[in-house]
């Protein structure tokens, strides 16, 4: 009934293209319009002003010869003030946009290596958007946004990359464990060296204490011997007793040197008179030490 009366309804976010005897006349805004068909006025078609999305899958090759599939998402819409251009100039908007996306991606991605392509997704999207904006504005369309939503390498490349990443993770894990083990080993060696040094210091201290006690025992024994000899043999002096002790030790030493086949022999004056000289030298040394 509306077409018979010449009434046309245009929905919201939509414009209608009015023609008179097949020639573009004007763009009809949303609402109700009177188009008497009897004078050749009619609606040639409708054009949506809503934002539409087109997903484009483009296969290309990177600089390092890896085949990838780049998935681009283009959001676009027709401009109300250029509705006639959008309606008449393009017969298939989606295919036109897809052709431009293919052209830009296949000109940009081959300049990048695979890792760089992942890192520079925004740069690729920006290049696609700039090229589309420049080309589609003449046809009455606005490019709202362009996104590179995915870069899919070949399945064999994916498996190889996963194996490499797994190997890297394993290597990092092993390296960390080895670093911890080396640190613990170094700490253990440090503790062993400290304990060894403490043991040696304690050993030397105890050895010194033993030598000091040995010398003290020798001195005490000699003192007791001198006192006992002086009481049992009247008229003897401490000098006579020390000479006799030195002679006794001298012959004991000579006996030990002769009894051992592997000991180094030390040749010293060993006559009876030499013993007296040795005793004199020992006494002189003790006297000089006391004077100092």
Automatic annotation (TrEMBL):
It comes from the Eukaryota. Keywords: Lipoprotein, Myristate. One of its GO terms (cellular component) is mitochondrion. Residues 5-165 form the Band domain. The keyword Lipoprotein applies. SMART domains: PHB. The keyword Lipoprotein applies. Positive regulator of hypersensitive response (HR)-like cell death. May be involved in potassium ion channel regulation. This is Hypersensitive-induced response protein 1. It comes from Dichanthelium oligosanthes. The lineage of its organism: Eukaryota, Viridiplantae, Streptophyta, Embryophyta, Tracheophyta.
